[in-house]
Amino acid sequence: MSDRKISQAVISRLPRYLRYLGDLKDEGVERISSHDLSLRMHVTASQIRQDFNHFGGFGQQGYGYNVGYLYDEIAKIIGLDHKHTLIIVGAGNLGQALANYMNFERRGFIILGIFDRNPALIGKKVRDMEIEDISKAPDFVKAHGIEIAVLTLPKAGATEIVGKLVDSGIKGIWNFAHVDLDLPDVIIVENVHLSESLMKLSYKLSRGADSEI
Prior knowledge:
The longest helix is centred in the first third of the chain and has 19 residues, at about 10-25. Helix 1 (about 10-25) crosses helix 4 and helix 2 packs across helix 3 (about 45-55). This protein is about 45% helix and about 15% strand. The chain has two domains: about 5-80, Orthogonal Bundle (Arc Repressor Mutant, subunit A); about 85-195, NAD(P)-binding Rossmann-like Domain (Rossmann fold). Strand 5 and strand 6 (about 130) form a beta hairpin. It is α/β, with parallel strands linked by helices.
């Protein structure tokens, strides 16, 4: 089934399903019903069944879901059945924290390089990677067939380097910079605006837990 026929709301829930199923695997749980999964996730069993039915269902009546099989199938749907190569552009506190986050490799995201424009950072090591000059990033993308650029730069200069990365073959941007990127439709951009998320939390705190934004 084409992803275009599936709502963004369903797609946005898939990583959460994968996380809970991963926890179940770690606990040694082999099968689970939609009811028991709903109790863990605080999503109705009906919603879970509807979501999974978009992709074929996966379950058996009277048996429930095989946790390992369901985990693998959702991982395939998300695209985690093959490796994704990425670089981090911006080696400040956030960039280094992301580089040190070991769970990326567990999910198949392989960090191959980290870049910055600050001379004080260039040459230092983060994990087993040496921070390189940002001017080298476009050629690195070409040489290694990098798919994803994680953008953790300050706003100034972010648009310029992204344009060069796109010209070098980048397919996706995970954007933590405080800038809206105007890129061709073929480039996939996932924006993560931390300050906006914090302001949403502030709004909800000021109006109560049931408030929506």
